[in-house]
């Protein structure tokens, strides 16, 4: 919500309109519009009440501004409003695209992490199975040697 704030600089008080925005988790005032000193604000207000254009240095009344002069406040305001709306639309589109890209990157990172975990689990399972295979081969070799020993014993017994 915008609020009026004064700032002192070189002994003078200047007014500005600010809005509160969070920066790094802390609220910070962000200037929206600089209004100037109290005297300047009063001068603009008095000129406005008299029908004089505050933006025009010659202080012509608004009714006396020529249509072709290019100093028409209504055209300027329309242009500013239109430009603001176009810029706002572009910002919203960019924000939406950024959100889609951010979500896609996040999903890819999650998928990558899940695949890494699956690979680690598969590697550990492979190591366990390789150890079991080695143990089984050792046992098989041992049993074969025992079978050969028993066969020799049987052959020796037959010869006797």
Could you characterize the architecture of this molecule?
It is a single chain. The chain has 160 residues and is α+β, with helices and mostly antiparallel strands. The chain is 62% helix and 19% strand. The chain is built from two helices and three strands. It has helices at residues 38-49, 73-159, and strands at 3-9, 12-23, 26-36. The longest helix is centred in the C-terminal third of the chain and has 87 residues, at 73-159. The termini are far apart.
Number of helices: 2
Which structural class is indicated by helix and strand composition? alpha+beta
Please state the average pLDDT score.
83
> How far is the N terminus from the C terminus?
111 Å
The helix/strand order is EEEHH
Quick one: biggest sheet? 3 strands, antiparallel
Bin the strand percentage: 15-25%
Low-confidence stretches: 56-71
Rg estimate, integer Å: 42 Å
How many β-strands, per DSSP? Answer: 3
Strand order of the largest sheet: 1-2-3
Helical content class: 55-70%
Principal-axes geometry comes out as rod-shaped
Features:
160 residues, alpha+beta, 3-stranded antiparallel β-sheet, 2 helices
SSE diagram, text form:
Layout (H helix, E strand, L loop, with lengths): L2 E7 L2 E12 L2 E11 L1 H12 L23 H87 L1
Antiparallel strand pairs: 1-2, 2-3
Concise account of the structure shown:
The protein is of the alpha+beta class and 160 residues long.
